[in-house]
Amino acid sequence: MKIMNITDVEEFFKVIDSCKGKVELVSTEGDRINLKSKLSQFISIAQLLSPSIIDELEILAYEPEDVNTLIQYMMNGK
C-alpha cells in the first residue's frame, strides 16, 4: 500500500504505533524495515525528512484491521 503526502510525521507514527500487527516500510531496493520498532522509526525519520513533506511511502501491513486503520489515516488524516 502506498501512503502519500505525509505532512505530520509524528501523527503518522502514532497511527503506526496503534496498529496491532507488523507494519513494514518497503524501500525502493525492496528491503523491509519494521516501523513498529522505535529505532527503525528514528532511522526512517532521519532519512526521510530531507523534505518536510514525505510525498510517498510504500508500507506493508499484515493485519486487515491495520490496513483499515492506515486507509482511514490516508482518507481523514487520522
Q: What share of residues is helical?
A: 40-55%
Determine the oligomeric state from the structure. Answer: single chain
- Radius of gyration computed on alpha carbons: 11 Å
pLDDT < 50 runs, ≥5 residues: none
End-to-end C-alpha gap: 17 Å
What would the principal axes of the Cα set say about the shape?
Answer: globular
Strand content: 25-35%
Derived from helix and strand composition plus strand pairing, the structural class reads: alpha+beta
Order of helices and strands: EHEEHEH
Number of domains: 1
The number of strands is 4
Rounded mean pLDDT score? 82
The main pleated sheet reads as: 4 strands, antiparallel
Helix count, DSSP H or I runs of 4 or more residues: 3
Key features?
alpha+beta, globular
Secondary structure layout plus pairing:
Blueprint: E1 2-6, H1 9-18, E2 23-26, E3 32-34, H2 38-48, E4 54-61, H3 64-76
Antiparallel strand pairs: 1-4, 2-3, 2-4
Helix pairs in contact: 1-3
